Amino acid sequence: MTINEAQDNIIADFEGLDDWLDKYQLIIDRGMAQKIDPQYKTPQHLIEGCQSKVWIHADYADGKVTYQAESNTEIAGGIAAMLVEILSGHTPREIMDADLYFIDRIGLKEHLSPTRSNGMLAMMKQMKLYAIAFNSVN
Amino acid sequence: MCEGGFNQSYDMLDINKIREDFPILGDTVYNRPLVYLDNAATTQKPRQVVECISQCYYHRNANVHRGVHYLSQEATEAHEQARESVRSFINARSTSEIVFTRGTTESINLVASSFGETLKEGDEVIVSQMEHHSDIVPWQLLASRRGIRLKVWKFDADGVLHVDDLKALLSDRVRLVAVAQASNTLGTVNPIKEIATVVHGAGALLLVDGAQSVPHFPVDVRDLDCDFLAFSGHKIYGPTGIGVLYGKEQVLERMPPYQGGGEMIDHVTFEKTTFNVLPYKFEAGTPDFIGSAALKAALDYVSALGIENVAAYESQLVDYMIGCLAEIPQIRIFGPRQRIGVASFLVGEIHPYDLGTILDHLGIAVRTGHHCAQPTMDAFKVDGMVRASVAVYNTKEEIDTLIESIMRAMRMFH
Ligand SMILES: Cc1ncc(COP(=O)(O)O)c(C=O)c1O
Predict the structure, then answer these.
(1) CATH number of the domain that residue B316 is part of
(2) Contact A24 B358 (CB under 8 A)
């Protein structure tokens, strides 16, 4: 599956939902299921948002990046989970070039508070930074 | 949905009529009626206040204390009438004791800077553990500037301060004690009168942070006998950007000026400048004379309702809110049962930010996070709380909506 196919799958999940609470339910469910290997729940892996904490780690093997993430809040965790799902299993170059349009298409951007969308941007940035680092190792 | 605790026949105030004065309360957010329960952060403004602001700008705008012309005199009179309103609202002896500031924060900083200059190395200041950062950080800055020691008066497991603990901290090195009359997080009301007696007995001064008390019940500085009282206009239905520092005249007289500029001077030469009389000595630059007039409109509004009536009504509302919240499974409510204004809580394992986000989408405005009182969070070993805080325009039905919405949010987190 390409990055865009993964994004389209997520968009499709949200498309049938009219009520924002149902959309949040989907995010929360993903957040509750999203875990990181406890050894990576360290300050080095922490992205500090305003009110939520998110830990991100990435591994690189066979030319592909695999992400893990977790948050102390379920909503940030759900967003991290979607990013993990979309970006894992791709090459650093694909990740660096990815246009993450799903955020606009599921309407996340308008509905998340500014502090939360800053946190989301920080997560995306951190994931791309991993890809850049792995790419330069190549 | 939740029985008891609320006197349906309460009729001293017509809350629905009051609500009509606040246009924002009729608004919707995310297509749901707004339930505004973030009043401890800032209150909404009645038409009377907003109209006062536009009338001032449209028809009475001129700089105060300087012009011979008609408009300037009118503006000056309005500004000084506002000072008189504040004086009467808190029952100060004289308008010389009422300094206009930008808000509680600036009022406290003024005291920390100016009174702080009279402190020497080795002197001590005591602050309570439940203070807002505004009543902690200025003292910390002072401590590092002047080598004084900051001591913390701790509260108990219910969030209550005990005067005996304060007595144990007092000594002849203590120059000032700073404490909130009401906590913005726990709702605790502290016994200021008793505290003042003890503090004065030790030869120190008492600064009271009235940000959360002045809007909610009658505050009489003469009866309390505090040396300073700070509060913000925007938390009592007034505009942002104006606040008050009350200081006893003989105390303010002995303090050096805070900022320098116009208004605060008597005579300026490059050799020597002399300063204006109280309260102008502490009001450098053009004051917020529109803000002061609008603050007067807000205080007039509250006085017309009767601050005792506001207190009585809100107290029922808060009792009802606490009673209903307490029935929610797995809830932790922080602070004593006897309280004013606010209810801070956590539900099960749900992060306050998540709960606040869902409540927001259900139309309910609450605050989440540390409420600018991180030491209070630390005392309860939490990172944050959800806080619902009331004003006179909130209703029992809104509390019911809050409770139903929390239950609904809980189901979303299984
Ligand atoms: C107890 C207390 N003190 C001080 C402040 C600071 O008030 P302001 O931001 O209006 O200066 C607040 C308001 O958040 C408060 O609740």
Answers:
(1) 3.90.1150.10
(2) yes
- Catalytic residues of A, by residue number, are 50
pLDDT grade for A121, boundaries at 50, 70 and 90: confident
Q: Are residues B72 and B202 in the same domain?
A: yes
Q: H or E stretch including B146? A: helix B137-146
Q: Same domain for B106 and B218?
A: yes
| CB-based contact B412 A51, cutoff 8 Å | no
What share of chain B in percent tops pLDDT 70? 98
**B41 CA closest ligand 1 atom index:** 14
Tell me which of A73, A110, A115 to substitute to probe the interface with B (most B C-beta atoms closer than 10 Å).
A73
Q: B348 in contact with A at a CB cutoff of 8 Å?
A: no
Indicate the residue among B274, B304, B334 that finishes a domain: B304
Whole-angstrom Cα Rg for chain B: 22
Max Cα distance, chain B (Å): 73
Q: Is the CB of residue A87 less than 8 Å from the CB of residue A65?
A: yes
Q: Do B228 and B361 sit in the same domain of this protein?
A: no
pLDDT at site A49: 62
> Domains of chain A: which residue ranges?
3-136
CATH topology of domain A3-136: Sufe protein. Chain: A (3.90.1010)
Q: How confident is the model at residue A74, as a pLDDT?
A: 94
Condensed to tens digits (0 to 9), the pLDDT of residues B352-390 reads: 999 999 999 999 999 999 989 999 999 999 999 999 999
B30 contacts in A (CB within 8 Å)?
20
Which tokens go with B214?
């002045």
Q: So what's the pLDDT on residue B101?
A: 98
The model's pTM is: 0.94
Q: Which atom of ligand 1 is nearest to the CA of B107?
A: 11
- Model confidence at B82, pLDDT cuts 50, 70, 90, reads very high
Distance CA B90, CA A93 (A): 67
Contact list, B361 vs chain A (CB under 8 Å): 20-21, 24, 111
Write down the ipTM of this complex.
0.89
What sign does the CA torsion over B96, B98, B102, B108 have? positive
- Distance from the B43 Cα atom to the nearest Cα atom in chain A, whole angstroms: 21
Q: 3-class SS at B385?
A: strand
Average pLDDT, chain B: 95
Number of CB atoms found within 10 A of residue B186's CB:
28
Q: Does B365 touch chain A (CB under 8 A)?
A: no
Tell me how many domains chain B contains: 2
Task: Note whether B248 and B393 are same-domain residues.
Answer: no
| Residue B175 near ligand 1, beta carbon < 6 Å | no
Task: Name the residue among B353, B361, B384 with its Cβ closest to that of A20.
Answer: B361
